[in-house]
Specification:
The protein is of the alpha/beta class and about 200 residues long. The chain is built from 6 helices and 9 strands. Helix 1 packs parallel to helix 2.
Length: about 200
């Protein structure tokens, strides 16, 4: 058992268990991880994430508690990270769609300053936002060294799902630098935007 790390995610709202599992797998030196959750949605999300990254998962539990025994795989990811399915409060009705690393048209230096202020201000509306979708050069906001990275990471901790277009990350050759959110695809992005009560595009 000395080769197993334990992660207690009981009482945490989606998508926190997946985010913590992702961080634990990236940082741990042990060969196995035991994740405990207290709802079926978190159990399913953690399982799908771990398996998408090439790890083996066995599940046990009772009385509403689930133990996910994750054995570290030898290889890397076998597929893109799956979408996290959360039963979001009805108030979270806004999907935010960003298609540029700059805000507005004109001077890029000014656009970068405005985008920084925009993302920083989003925390005041976290209860209304369910997703932040990043496409085209907006994916650069979520990578290592980005000026707004800390703000996006805080928003993710506030139960806002951040999705970065995988094709866009590949185009800019920065997929390995992604530091917040998950890699997504056009089908998932369109599905989220189509189902959101309101889509906000600055």
């Amino acid at each position: 058992m000395e080769h197993m790390k334990k992660l207690d995610c009981t009482g945490l709202n989606c998508p926190q268990p997946v985010i913590l599992t992702k961080d634990a797998l990236a940082e741990m030196t042990e060969s196995e991880l035991l994740v405990t959750v207290d709802n079926e949605a978190s159990c399913s999300n953690v399982q799908r994430f771990a398996e998408s990254q090439g790890h083996e998962v066995t599940i046990s539990g009772k009385n509403g508690f689930y133990n996910l025994h994750i054995s570290r795989g030898e290889g890397g990811a076998v597929s893109e990270e799956p979408i996290i399915e959360c039963d979001l409060p009805s108030k979270k009705g806004i999907a935010l769609y960003l298609s540029s690393e700059f805000l507005g048209k004109g001077d890029d230096e000014l656009g970068a300053i405005l985008m920084g202020a925009y993302v920083e201000t989003l925390s005041h509306f976290a209860n209304d936002i369910s997703h932040i979708v990043l496409v085209n050069s907006a994916v650069k906001l979520a990578v290592e060294g980005a000026s707004v990275l800390d703000h996006l990471q805080e928003l993710e901790k506030m139960n806002i799902e951040v999705l970065a277009c995988g094709t866009c990350l590949d185009f800019f050759k920065i997929k390995d630098k992604l530091q917040v959110g998950s890699v997504s695809n056009m089908f998932t992005i369109l599905d989220i935007l189509a189902k959101a009560p309101k889509v906000l595009t600055p």
